[in-house]
Specification:
The complex is a heterotrimer of chains A (about 120), B (about 270) and C (about 325).
Chain A (H helix, E strand, L loop, with lengths): L9 E8 L7 E8 L2 H12 L7 E6 L8 H4 L19 H7 L7 H5 L10
Antiparallel strand pairs in A: 1-2, 1-3
Chain B lengths: L5 H26 L7 H27 L5 H6 L10 H4 L15 H22 L5 H29 L4 H18 L9 H6 L6 H18 L22 H10 L1 H5 L6
Helix pairs in contact in B: 1-2, 2-6, 5-6, 5-7, 5-9
Chain C lengths: L9 H13 L12 H26 L8 H28 L7 H10 L15 H20 L7 H29 L3 H21 L5 H4 L4 H6 L7 H18 L10 E3 L4 E3 L6 H7 L6 H14 L1 H7 L5
Antiparallel strand pairs in C: 1-2
Helix pairs in contact in C: 2-3, 3-6, 5-6, 5-7, 5-10
The chains are: A alpha+beta (about 120), B mainly alpha (about 270), C mainly alpha (about 325).
Bound molecules: fe (ii) ion (2 copies).
Chain lengths: ~120, ~270, ~325
């Protein structure tokens, strides 16, 4: 029995971003008749104890997710150290010999605010 | 009679009006808990009732600091004739009891909440330049939460009236018709109104009312309502202690446990 | 697409499914799952969800009456959370119900028809402010024990919902304790409120975890939920955990428990207790508890009365 009010319950997925530079985070889904009402309800349903900078609501049918089968394409052999810093950790020891520090993630990311001039 | 300056009296009067309005408004909102048209809305609107009771608590606390007695006592232990809230805010959500066969009207909730939130936003805006510094500071804080409240109720108001659904539109129109005749009570500043304005506490009733009409007129027009906005105080002025049976009953309920032992710590 | 998996035989699918669960993988809504698994989840989660919604009602009754501004705010926030838990869980159940084209409206109708049950505790009366406090303290306490037990559930969406729920339950437990603590340290009448509540709720708290085995009521879902790694402990283990966590807290405040036989047996390391009247679970399941019909009619009333709102905003069918 399909009543018209049945349509009222459209599915929306709710996402938020903590700060302007953080990644979008998925929360949960909710039911609402349209996107204006969905966005009006999203924060108090899922983020009433946390601060956020922005909220997205997306109609679920507009999200293309992977099927279980497609998810198989995400599998990889764990032998890719060569493309991560993990594979180059030995440099730290090497550089020590030359009295140099390691340009690791922490160091390089710290350049974001400008680099202090030094000898 | 204490020997109070007119300024002190005016400040306290205004604080009582603000506190009592928000308190009874959030009480009516809280009665809707678990009964909203759908679950997500129940959760969302519950936050608004909490925020609003939080605002009442802030105002009561200011009164406490002025020596009027502690906030819980002010909220729970004053008879109807001492309450300053506008009558429109005390009216029941509908016939029936919140525990048994409530015949609550969502249209009335939306209209009253939207009208009140818009009016509150205008008053709070005016309080930004209140000559009583602590209240001006509080107004800044309260305003932060009103953006959401206003978006919330405006969305419902516009969507239901714009739905083209016969029953919804006629219920909404009936709710507007029910709310208007008493809504001027929200703008009334009571018997010390003139002093409040002279002392620079808040703008006058007529100014506030005009701003409110300016704010809701385009919304009315957007949903095809003829914008003849006429409000009154059909049942009297709550600021002067005039109230209905509805408030008496609400006070009895909300103070039931408190009154069972006023000295106890709960 | 459909390169490898599609033509797999049923049995092979089942084996792969079991292997995934055994490996600790999470099953997602769109994944293939055996009917028994889906059916068990639907029963469990829709009952859990609707119990949260119905469970909001006994406490809601005390929201307007809470004795201070702070208590009014606290209990409002708590009832709001319970509605929110219902929201999360019903969303999970609704997704599981997709193959049967059932939606929220159908779940509500199932509730009204008596096909969808809600937990025994929410059929009881909340007679006093003491009950309002005790619900937060011990009913939520019991619920926390059973809900945390499923945090590692093999069904991903349920596990994620429980993660959010349990985080909020921490607040509920403290909210309940705060009310009880104030009463416990208060006047004789206030202390009596708590003691009366304990006496009234004790049996319900034991019933809450369900029968120890099939023989008490004829059916028990616990074996299947453990088999599919939806939960880890049995009903009896959860009840024992409840005793272990709460008996000493109740006694430490100087209250008594209405069971003279209750004791911890050191030898077997188990709590010995007076068995509740298991037959009552059937009474509640038939919605014949003290407040079953009132709460159902309140829920039905609000759902019917607001039907026009849902119709007005439903997108038009063209
Ligand atoms: Fe809960
Ligand atoms: Fe809870």
């Amino acid at each position: 029995m399909e009543t018209r009010q049945g349509n009222y319950f459209e599915e929306f997925e709710v996402f938020s971003r903590k700060t302007q530079s953080s990644p979008i985070q998925y929360h949960f889904s909710l039911l609402a008749p349209n996107e204006d009402i969905a966005i009006m309800m999203a924060q108090e349903n899922f983020m009433r104890r946390e601060a956020v900078d922005d909220i997205w609501v997306v109609k679920r049918r507009n999200i293309r997710k992977m099927t279980a089968e497609e998810k198989k394409t995400l599998q990889r052999i764990d032998n890719k150290d060569y493309r991560t810093t993990k594979g180059y950790g030995y440099l730290k020891k090497k550089w020590r010999k030359y009295e140099q520090g390691m340009l690791d993630e922490k160091e390089i990311m710290s350049w974001a605010g400008g680099v202090k001039n030094e000898e | 009679m204490r020997n109070e300056s007119l300024k002190d009296i005016a400040i306290k009067e205004l604080l009582l009006q603000l506190a009592d309005d928000d308190f009874i408004h959030s009480y009516r909102g809280a009665e809707w808990l678990g009964l909203a048209p759908h679950i997500e809305e129940d959760v969302a609107s519950a936050s608004i009732s909490q925020d609003t009771m939080g605002h009442a608590a802030i105002y009561y606390k200011l009164l406490d600091e002025l020596g009027e007695g502690d906030a819980d006592k002010l909220a729970h232990d004053r008879p109807a004739k001492e309450r300053r809230n506008a009558i429109i805010l005390e009216l029941v959500n509908g016939p029936g009891h919140y525990m048994k066969d409530p015949d609550y009207d969502w249209a009335f909730a939306v209209v009253r909440n939207y009208f009140y939130t818009q009016a509150k936003a205008i008053k709070v805006q005016s309080l930004h330049s209140c000559s009583y510094e602590p209240l001006a500071e509080v107004a800044q804080k309260v305003q932060m939460e009103l953006y959401y409240h206003l978006m919330h109720w405006k969305t419902w108001f516009v969507q239901l009236l714009g739905s083209g659904h016969l029953e919804a539109v006629s219920r909404m129109k009936a709710a507007i018709g029910k709310t208007m005749p008493d809504f001027a009570g929200v703008f009334s500043l009571g018997q010390y109104g003139e002093e409040m304005v002279e002392l620079g506490l808040i703008e006058g009733e007529a100014v506030l009312q005009k701003k409110w009409i300016e704010a809701i007129t385009p919304i009315f027009e957007s949903v095809g309502l003829a914008a003849t906005i006429q409000i009154g105080m059909a049942r009297g002025d709550g600021r002067n202690g005039q109230h209905t049976e509805d408030l008496e009953k609400a006070l009895k309920t909300l103070s039931e446990v408190y009154a069972s032992d006023k000295a106890a710590s709960w | 697409m459909n390169v490898l998996l599609n033509d797999m035989a049923g049995e092979e699918k089942l084996n792969q499914f079991i292997a995934r669960i055994e490996a600790g993988e999470k099953i997602e809504a769109d994944d293939w799952m055996p009917e028994e698994y889906r059916g068990t989840l639907i029963k469990l989660i829709s009952m859990h969800g609707i119990s949260e919604i119905m469970g909001a009602l006994p406490e809601k009754e005390w929201v307007p009456k809470a004795p201070t501004l702070n208590r009014k705010l606290g209990i409002m926030a708590k009832v709001q959370d319970e509605m929110g838990h219902g929201q999360l869980l019903l969303r999970v159940a609704e997704d599981l119900l997709k193959p049967y084209s059932k939606k929220r409206d159908d779940l509500m109708q199932d509730l009204f028809k008596g096909d969808l049950k809600f937990h025994n505790v929410f059929h009881m009366e909340a007679k006093s402010w003491g009950d309002a406090g005790l619900i937060g303290w011990l009913v939520d306490g019991a619920a926390i024990i059973s809900q945390t037990n499923m945090l590692g559930a093999s069904y991903g969406p349920y596990a994620r919902a429980l993660q959010r729920i349990c985080a909020e339950e921490v607040f509920h437990a403290q909210h309940g304790e705060a009310i009880i603590m104030a009463l416990a340290e208060g006047t004789e009448e206030q202390r009596k409120l708590v003691q009366d509540s304990i006496n009234y709720w004790w049996e319900s708290l034991l019933l809450f975890f369900g029968p120890p085995s099939k023989k008490e009521v004829g059916t028990s879902k616990q074996d299947i939920t453990i088999k599919y790694k939806i939960r880890t402990s049995t009903n009896e283990e959860l009840r024992q955990a409840f005793f272990s966590k709460y008996v000493k807290r109740i006694l430490s405040l100087g209250f008594s428990i209405p069971d003279e036989t209750l004791r911890f047996d050191k030898e077997s390391e188990t709590w010995i207790y007076q068995q509740p009247d298991w037959g009552k679970l059937k009474v509640f399941a038939r919605n014949e508890g003290p407040r079953s019909q009132d709460r159902l009619s309140l829920r039905r009333n609000s759902y019917e009365k607001n039907k026009w709102v849902r119709e007005a905003l439903a997108p038009k069918i063209i």
